[in-house]
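We were asked to recover a plausible sequence for a given structure. The inputs and outputs are reproduced exactly as logged, with field labels preserved.

PROBLEM: sequence recovery
POSITIONS: 374
GIVEN STRUCTURE:
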């Protein structure tokens, strides 16, 4: 046996083990709930918008604790016994977090906790404080509109609505600036996921992802965004529209490929979706005005059963083609086109390429008219 090689191999193995060990980030959560004791306190990781049970413990005189280690900061939440609320997300990272809340005996549930301590969580608190200031101001003006709607002149009402719009725009700027401000922290991808993931295009999302150091890139949230970008790229603007073969509302076979050579709009909607039903009159007018000029339209429903879907089509006078696999959010078409909210429109040109995503109202009409006039 070659002793030198054996020692070298052992040294390398130990180095590998130590590198794994030292990559772990130790954490601790110390909890205190005034006025409550329960046999079950559960710590969940939030992964792909789902709760994954991570650790479980019990309470002693209203106190509990969790300890462990992570590879990267984890977005988490705590459930106290059988209480579904409050839902309060926080980051587990290096250091000690303090979880404090009280139990409301009248409402028979715990109140929203305060959670602070590690650097990442404190950054999240700072970001959310700024965001709440915008939300509070917007709420105040909306309340004024509701309470004084009969007293305000049209000019005063317009001034308040313009102020609300400007606050929304300012909050949008604040959120985007915060993505850059916290680029060395998982707070940045958290903001992307919370505020921009489903409205930004792939180039915007990639530019944000390129800001991140390795420590942020290996976090679960960043990986989730990267996976979303990979899926979205296949159906983003400029990509060929994937074919879909579904049954129509009256049971006939239909596929999108049959519309090749025509300008058409795919409208993802559902009978149970309030905003969809509110938008339907605009879609009816769009189709009525521009179908004679060559526009086709296909409604893809995220309904779960035939009758409500069929009834909504008839009630809203939606006279274009309608298809669905009646699988709700598990719709194969919704997965294929990376649909995360309804209503969502996809505009396709005569070459079968996606021209725009998510347009509505006048923006959709203008985009359709431009294509028809080419």
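RECOVERED SEQUENCE:
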């Amino acid at each position: 046996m070659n002793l030198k090689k054996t020692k070298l191999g052992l040294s390398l193995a130990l180095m590998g083990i130590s590198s794994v060990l030292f990559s772990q980030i130790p954490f601790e959560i110390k909890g205190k709930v005034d006025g409550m004791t329960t046999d079950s306190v559960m710590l969940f990781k939030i992964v792909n918008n789902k709760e994954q049970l991570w650790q479980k413990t019990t309470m002693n005189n209203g106190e509990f604790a969790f300890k462990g280690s992570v590879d990267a900061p984890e977005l988490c939440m705590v459930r106290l016994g059988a209480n579904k609320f409050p839902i309060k997300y926080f980051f587990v990272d290096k250091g000690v977090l303090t979880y404090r809340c009280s139990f409301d005996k009248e409402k028979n549930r715990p109140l929203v906790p305060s959670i602070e301590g590690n650097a990442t969580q404190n950054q999240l608190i700072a970001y959310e404080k700024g965001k709440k200031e915008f939300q509070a101001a917007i709420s105040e003006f909306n309340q004024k509109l509701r309470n004084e709607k009969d007293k305000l002149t049209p000019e005063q009402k317009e001034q308040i609505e313009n102020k609300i719009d400007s606050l929304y725009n300012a909050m949008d700027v604040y959120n985007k600036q915060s993505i850059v401000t916290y680029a060395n922290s998982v707070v940045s991808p958290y903001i992307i996921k919370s505020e921009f993931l489903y409205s930004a295009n792939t180039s915007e999302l990639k530019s944000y992802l390129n800001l991140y150091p390795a420590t942020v890139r290996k976090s679960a949230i960043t990986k989730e965004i990267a996976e979303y970008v990979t899926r979205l790229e296949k159906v983003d603007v400029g990509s060929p529209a994937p074919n879909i073969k579904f049954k129509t509302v009256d049971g006939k076979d239909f596929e999108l490929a049959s519309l090749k050579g025509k300008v058409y709009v795919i409208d993802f909607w559902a009978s149970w979706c309030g905003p969809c039903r509110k938008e339907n009159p605009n879609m009816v007018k769009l189709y009525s005005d521009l179908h004679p000029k060559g526009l086709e339209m296909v409604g893809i429903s995220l309904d779960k059963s035939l009758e409500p879907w069929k009834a909504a089509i008839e009630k809203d006078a939606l006279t274009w083609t309608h298809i669905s696999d009646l699988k709700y959010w598990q719709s194969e078409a919704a997965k294929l086109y990376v649909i995360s909210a309804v209503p969502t429109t996809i505009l396709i040109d005569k070459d079968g390429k996606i021209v725009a995503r998510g347009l509505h109202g006048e923006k959709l009409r203008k985009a359709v008219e431009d294509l028809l006039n080419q």
